[in-house]
Amino acid sequence: MTMIDPTARIADGAVIGAGTEIGPYCIIGPNVVLGENCKLLAHVTVNGHTTVGAGCVISPFAALGGPPQDLSYRGEPTRLEIGEACTIREGVTMNIGTVKGGGLTRVGDRGFFMNNSHVGHDCTVGNNVIFATSATLGGHCEIGDFVYIGGLSAVHQFTRVGPQVMIGGVCGVRGDIIPFGLANGQYAVLEGLNIIGMRRRQFTKQRLAAVRAFYQKLFHGPGVFAERLASVQPLADEDPAIAEILAFIDGAKHRALCLPANTN
């Protein structure tokens, strides 16, 4: 049964799914679609052309679907899509897209967004991510599945973060981070592989050994990086994770690769 507190304000045109609960002082705009069995606890604002998937729980003072923080935006009906079963804590902000960025900000399923984290315009965020307190994305970022971003860390606009990456706290991420990478430091550097995350994803000892050997050859072998990258291409057949890392590097768009310190 849908329950709406009498102090909430639901604009004409909004679609509220069955079983959704909207708590005190929430504001829902006319172009919003809330899926089934969501819970908006109190003081939540959802505006813009925004869709929220079923089973999401949204805490007080979250603001979803606000205009992009981009000076070129002129009120176009761009969108924000949030997947199912996300936990969105206090003060989280997620913005709609821009026309020049494709018009869509997309967030996947089962994300956990801690207080005051931010998803900027035109970002694509995968499934099962965790954004710790005040983790922030600039516009146009691409974040893979199972990514963890530590507290107070910020990802520069147009940066790609591959699947199963772990980013430490208080990091400034200015370069693309390879899938399965572990990045840390004030200006993030690649410290190795996210071995804990890989084990959680059921990587065997044999697979871990193969990917570790590949990583060492690519980032710490003899010669300059371009030469090493060319030499490890045949290793793509050894493990799907190696193939995924090489494809990610090959798909570079705007940012340089995040590398270990002192890499040639």
UniProtKB/TrEMBL annotation:
<dbReference type="GO" id="GO:0016020">
    <property type="term" value="C:membrane"/>
</dbReference>
<dbReference type="GO" id="GO:0009245">
    <property type="term" value="P:lipid A biosynthetic process"/>
</dbReference>
<comment type="similarity">
    <text>Belongs to the transferase hexapeptide repeat family. LpxA subfamily.</text>
</comment>
<keyword id="KW-0963">Cytoplasm</keyword>
<comment type="subunit">
    <text>Homotrimer.</text>
</comment>
<comment type="pathway">
    <text>Glycolipid biosynthesis; lipid IV(A) biosynthesis; lipid IV(A) from (3R)-3-hydroxytetradecanoyl-[acyl-carrier-protein] and UDP-N-acetyl-alpha-D-glucosamine: step 1/6.</text>
</comment>
<protein>
    <recommendedName>
        <fullName>Acyl-[acyl-carrier-protein]--UDP-N-acetylglucosamine O-acyltransferase</fullName>
        <ecNumber>2.3.1.129</ecNumber>
    </recommendedName>
</protein>
<feature type="domain" description="UDP N-acetylglucosamine O-acyltransferase C-terminal">
    <location>
        <begin position="176"/>
        <end position="257"/>
    </location>
</feature>
<keyword id="KW-0444">Lipid biosynthesis</keyword>
<dbReference type="GO" id="GO:0005737">
    <property type="term" value="C:cytoplasm"/>
</dbReference>
<dbReference type="InterPro" id="IPR001451">
    <property type="entry name" value="Hexapep"/>
</dbReference>
<dbReference type="Pfam" id="PF00132">
    <property type="entry name" value="Hexapep"/>
</dbReference>
<dbReference type="Pfam" id="PF13720">
    <property type="entry name" value="Acetyltransf_11"/>
</dbReference>
<keyword id="KW-0443">Lipid metabolism</keyword>
<keyword id="KW-0677">Repeat</keyword>
<dbReference type="GO" id="GO:0008780">
    <property type="term" value="F:acyl-[acyl-carrier-protein]-UDP-N-acetylglucosamine O-acyltransferase activity"/>
</dbReference>
<keyword id="KW-0012">Acyltransferase</keyword>
<dbReference type="InterPro" id="IPR037157">
    <property type="entry name" value="Acetyltransf_C_sf"/>
</dbReference>
<dbReference type="InterPro" id="IPR029098">
    <property type="entry name" value="Acetyltransf_C"/>
</dbReference>
<dbReference type="InterPro" id="IPR010137">
    <property type="entry name" value="Lipid_A_LpxA"/>
</dbReference>
<dbReference type="InterPro" id="IPR011004">
    <property type="entry name" value="Trimer_LpxA-like_sf"/>
</dbReference>
<comment type="function">
    <text>Involved in the biosynthesis of lipid A, a phosphorylated glycolipid that anchors the lipopolysaccharide to the outer membrane of the cell.</text>
</comment>
<keyword id="KW-0808">Transferase</keyword>
<keyword id="KW-0441">Lipid A biosynthesis</keyword>
